[in-house]
Each structure stands twice: as C-alpha cells, then as structure tokens.
Amino acid sequence: MAGMAAPHGVTEALTFVQLTPIRAIALAGLGFVGGLLSGFFGTGGAFIMTPGMMGLGVPGIAAVGANITHKFGKALVGAAKHREMGNVDVKLVLFMFVALTAGVQMAVTINTRVYEMLGTAGSNLYISAIYVILLSIVAWGMYRDLKNGGKAQTAKGPSLMERIQKVNLPPMINFTVANTRVSLWLVLFVGLATGYLAGTIGVGGFVGVPAMIYLLGVRTVIAAGTELGMAIFSGAYGALMYAKGGFVDIRLTLLLYLGSLLGIQIGAIATKAVREGQIKLVIVTVVALVAASRAVAIPKYLAELGNVSFSPALANFLEVGANILLYGSAIAGAVLILVWILQALAKGKAPDAVPARSRL
Fold this sequence. Notes:
Layout: H1 21-41, H2 49-55, H3 60-84, H4 90-147, H5 160-165, E1 172-175, E2 180-183, H6 184-201, H7 205-214, H8 220-244, H9 250-270, H10 276-304, H11 312-346
Antiparallel strand pairs: 1-2
Helix pairs in contact: 1-9, 1-11, 2-3, 3-6, 3-8, 3-9, 4-6, 4-8, 4-10, 6-7, 7-8, 9-11, 10-11
C-alpha cells in the first residue's frame, strides 16, 4: 500500500488503495465500460469512472486526479484526429484557455481545501453532491429531449437558449470554423464552467459540448472536436495540479487506459448498429442511475463525518445499494450495447468500424 505525505494542515494523509489482482481487474473493467460509453455517444463517457473508482475504495480526490490524467491522454489523440477532419475551432479553444485553466485551478483549490479540512469522507461527500446535482440536471434535460423525439417544443417567440445566443454584449467575437458570432463573456463563462467541472469530477465534456451547442450556437461535430482541444489543456493542467498535491496514482490511470482503449473501439462500432433513440435511452438511463447511486452514498459520508448516526446494518445496506445502482447500470448498459452489436451482426449488418480516437 502506497502512502503520500500529507500537505500542511491536512487532517489525514492520503493513502492510495492496495492494488490487489481483483481490484486491478475491476479498474480495467471500469475503464472498458467508460470507454464503451465514450465510443458509444462521444465525449463525456468517462463521467462514470470517478464514482466507479470511489466505489472501489479510491478516495474521491485521488479518483478525480486519475480520471483527469486519463482524460488528458485520450484528448491528445482525439483532438489530433478531429483537427485533421477540420472539427476543431482553434481560435475558440485559445479564447477559452484562460477561463478554462482558471476553472480547473478553482476546482483543484476547492477539492484540496475540502480534503484538508474534512478528509476523505468530506472530499467524497463534496464530489458526490456535485455529481448528484449535475447528473440530475443532465438526465432531466436528456429525458425531455428523448420524450419530445429530439425536437424542440413549439413555443411563441425564441427559446431561452436562442435569446442567450443573441446577447449583444461587447466585445463580440467571430469564430469562423464554428460559424458563430457570440459575446466574449459568454465564451469565457462556458470555458470557466467546463474547467471547473473537469477539475471537480475529472471530466467536463458532457457539459462543455452541450454548452457550446446551445449557448454559443456551435455545430455538434465542431463542439465535440473543440471540447477535445480544450480537454488537452484542462487535462494537462489538472493532472499537473493534482500530481503536485500528491493526488495522482498513475497505476489507476494506466489501468483505466488498458480497458478504455478496447471499450472505445467497440462503442464507436456500436453507433453504426443502433438507432439514435436507442443511444439516447442508454445514456439517460445510465446517467440517472449514476446520479441515484451517488445520492444513496451521501448518508454514509455524512455518518463518517459524524453529522448523522445510524446502525452499521443500515450503513452497509446503503453502501451495497449505491454500488448496485452504479455498477449495475454500467454493466447493464455495456451488455445492452454488446447485444445490439451481436444482433446487427446476426442480421448481416456488419457495422463499419469507426476510428475510436475520433470519438474520444
């Protein structure tokens, strides 16, 4: 078991998990599922990796450090491929750079401070609370989109998002590749929010991409490619800051890579074998259940902090319930994707292999 020296004022020294064969296999499997989801619906699939590592006993702050480091490596390859395809607005990435890194720095500072003040339980509580709030919002928005068949609800006048896009607050910036003209302040806000989420939970793409689409008016494929360009900077800076604090266990990152490289390949192929509605159904279900799993885990962290008290039997029940929701949804989603691929193959519809790196 490897341990790290505690920073000045920390309430407990961070101790890395003991990497048993079972845990190593589980981490590689987690990487496979995260990669499968990333390949299946594009950037952001790694959102399941941070809570997945926490469920395996990895302290939340170390899970974030491993995930954001893992994201950096994948973003390098993915962004290069999207750049070749003309899907990265470099100007937009550069304009977001300062706000993006500021958001990551803010997140790392808060995460570190929470850990120093409240230890592992407090860090896990903070990260889980962010997950519950964020994933609940994402799941609800995706559910509404799925319910409406992907079509915006008809309403009198422009929608809220359309009104935001038309905000004429100088300076206004033209982005040629993204084919949009928006206020610099809106660009900085998206960069700051994406950086903060990347630094807080280890991945910000599943929020950054929709934000660029709906707030900045960027086309979907350009938003996905541009977010990968942003992830190079947020991943590199976040990895550096967390490593500087002693919160990156490179063993975890390498095991995530080991599983995700295969998962991404299969997930990308699956997109050619299923309908868009099926993809959205899997996504919204997994996102909602992961949010629920973190909500169920919160009482345990409160008990560890001494804020609530309940019997050991109830504590064990909540922990088991949280893990069933988390890993059950992940495994069920992965199995469903694999079944759809096999069904397509059985019907003689061999899906074309899509280069996985283009969908990281």
